């Protein structure tokens, strides 16, 4: 899977850089993120819940920053295991460029998925990845511009929507374990 996009952040580059390197802020903004714990220099262990089509799983993984050129760019190497749901791994190149009083953030992701997630099909995987990225940037923008309460409300709203979805749809686990 490949995904490339540019986002305009309404804050100066130094503020955007600091926010992108703040684990607690990232935990608030990453959809389904439960925890981000330090794991060495410029590396973190993550736990998160993600849904791709009918497959919903808890993933544990690691992310590490490489090729750091503060405050311009870095590369994020990541990998995660979701048990029977499968795995994901890849790299994301992130760069920040000043744009007046704002910042242009450009990223290019190359990732691989395997297991049940890969069986779902690339269209659903790509759509889920884009939705996660859009949700992240909406929350991130709210937090860095001072609307952290709105970001928390967005996270609570997402949880409520997922709970409603869970009541309306049968999960992949229930489907495959049915005799």
Automatic annotation (TrEMBL):
UniProt region (Disordered), positions on chain: 147-179
Organism of this sequence: Cupriavidus plantarum
InterPro entries: CO_DH_gsu, START-like_dom_sf
SUPFAM superfamilies: Bet v1-like (SSF55961)
Top-level taxon of origin: Bacteria
Name assigned to this protein: Carbon monoxide dehydrogenase subunit G
Biased composition range(s): Low complexity: 155-165
């Amino acid at each position: 899977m490949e995904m490339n996009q540019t986002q305009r952040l309404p804050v100066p580059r130094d503020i955007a850089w600091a926010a992108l390197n703040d684990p607690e802020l990232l935990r608030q903004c990453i959809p389904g993120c439960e925890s981000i714990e330090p794991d060495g220099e410029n590396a973190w262990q993550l736990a998160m819940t993600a849904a791709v089509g009918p497959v919903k799983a808890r993933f544990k993984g690691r992310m590490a920053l490489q090729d750091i050129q503060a405050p311009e760019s870095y590369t994020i190497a990541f990998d995660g295991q979701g048990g029977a749901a499968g795995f994901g791994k890849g790299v994301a190149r992130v760069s920040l460029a000043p744009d007046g009083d704002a910042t242009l953030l450009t990223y290019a992701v190359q990732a691989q998925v395997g297991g049940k997630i890969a069986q779902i099909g690339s269209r659903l995987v790509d759509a889920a990845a884009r939705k996660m990225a859009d949700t992240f940037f909406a929350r991130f923008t709210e937090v860095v511009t001072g609307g952290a309460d709105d970001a928390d409300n967005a996270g609570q709203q997402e949880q409520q929507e997922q709970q409603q979805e869970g009541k309306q749809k049968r999960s992949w686990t229930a489907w495959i374990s049915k005799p």
